[in-house]
């Protein structure tokens, strides 16, 4: 039971980060292979706030996500101002992520603050359990759905389809892209914090290009302009390596083959453009109201 519990916790954390990538890549059309860097920034920030400043864990997680979101402007503003798109933006995010990881790996202290360097940041409390992850996951899904169905989300979709046409229709490209990147980085930072409080330490080795490729794979496999697709595929991509431990060295090769197969036979992803909705809540509420009215 403990093993299943661990898989569910790690899967839930993976889904939260994948939702952020879905907003940026699936809806805005900006490919990223560097979201592990935002996870590291949020994870280390929340850990330091709890251990050094004795901030409550929940508040520290939110602050860690905000810190990661603010750091996204460092790479976002110059990239979007230079109109980087496609592979060029993806390479920029990769460089940013690897810079963060190498800095954390080679920096053992920042002034009086000990960050641990390659050994990691130790001594964190165990504060991530399954109910906590499920609560954050539910909230993350809800707010992601609210965003992508709002006017901001429609602007993101317009940019992904045709930037020039979107700009001619009055969409502020810079503002929309920076907003999507901020929210995406916030989700990643939140996931990094949850991961650290589950493992009880932070390490640069958590946030390699493999983690970024896993998140991108979840979005590509799940489907563009879909939240429910990455939700399921992010869970699947956590479970598959456990089922294929005897092929661990071939995991990235398998991912590559799956990428090719999906792009050839189902380029829109497994779930395509299937979107989640909360209509079932309204239907259930109406049934309860009618039942109470009938009893009255």
Overview of the structural elements:
It is a single chain. This protein is mainly α and about 300 residues long. The chain has one domain (about 1-210). Helix content is about 70%, strand content about 0%. The chain is built from 12 helices and 2 strands; from the N terminus they run H-H-H-H-E-E-H-H-H-H-H-H-H-H. The protein has helices at about 1-25, 35-50, 55-80, 85-105, 130-150, 150-160, 165-170, 175-200, 210-220, 230-245, 250-265, 280-295; strands at about 110, 115. Helix 1 (about 1-25) crosses helix 9 (about 210-220) and helix 1 (about 1-25) crosses helix 10. The protein is globular, with a radius of gyration of 20 Å.
Unreliable stretches:
none
Largest sheet: 2 strands, antiparallel
| Helix/strand order | HHHHEEHHHHHHHH
- Report the principal-axis shape: globular
Mind telling me the C-alpha Rg? 20 Å
- How many domains is the backbone divided into? 1
Report the average pLDDT across residues.
86
Overall structural class, as computed from helix and strand content, comes to mainly alpha
Instruction: Tell me the helix content.
Output: over 70%
Distance between the termini: 46 Å
Please tally the β strands and state the result: 2
Summarize it:
Helices cover 72% and strands 1% of the residues. With 296 residues, it is mostly helical. The chain has one domain (2-209).
Looking at this protein, list some descriptive labels:
296 residues; mainly alpha; two-stranded antiparallel sheet; 12 helices
């Amino acid at each position: 039971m403990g093993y299943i519990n661990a898989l569910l916790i790690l899967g839930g954390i993976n889904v939260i980060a994948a939702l952020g990538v879905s907003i940026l890549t699936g809806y805005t059309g900006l490919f990223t292979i560097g979201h592990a860097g935002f996870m590291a920034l949020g994870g280390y920030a929340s850990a330091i706030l709890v251990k050094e400043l004795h901030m409550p864990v929940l508040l520290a997680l939110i602050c860690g996500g905000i810190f990661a979101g603010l750091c996204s402007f460092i790479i976002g503003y110059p990239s979007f101002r230079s109109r980087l798109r496609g592979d060029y933006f993806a390479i920029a995010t990769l460089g940013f992520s690897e810079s963060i990881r190498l800095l954390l790996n080679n920096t053992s202290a920042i002034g009086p603050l000990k960050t641990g360097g390659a050994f990691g940041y130790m001594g964190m409390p165990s504060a991530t359990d399954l109910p906590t992850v499920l609560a954050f996951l539910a909230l993350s899904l809800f707010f992601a759905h609210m965003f992508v169905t709002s006017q901001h989300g429609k602007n993101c979709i317009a940019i992904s389809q045709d930037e020039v046409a979107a700009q001619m229709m009055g969409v502020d490209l810079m503002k929309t892209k920076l907003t999507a990147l901020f929210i995406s980085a916030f989700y990643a930072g939140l996931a990094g914090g949850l991961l650290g409080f589950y493992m009880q330490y932070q390490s640069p080795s958590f946030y390699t290009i493999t983690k970024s490729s896993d998140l991108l794979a979840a979005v590509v496999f799940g489907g563009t302009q879909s939240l429910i697709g990455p939700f399921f595929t992010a869970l699947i991509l956590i479970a598959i390596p456990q089922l294929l431990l005897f092929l661990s060295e071939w995991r990235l090769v398998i991912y590559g083959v799956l990428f090719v197969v999906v792009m050839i036979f189902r380029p829109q992803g497994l779930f395509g453009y299937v979107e989640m909705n909360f209509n079932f809540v309204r239907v259930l509420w109406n049934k309860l109201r009618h039942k109470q009215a009938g009893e009255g």
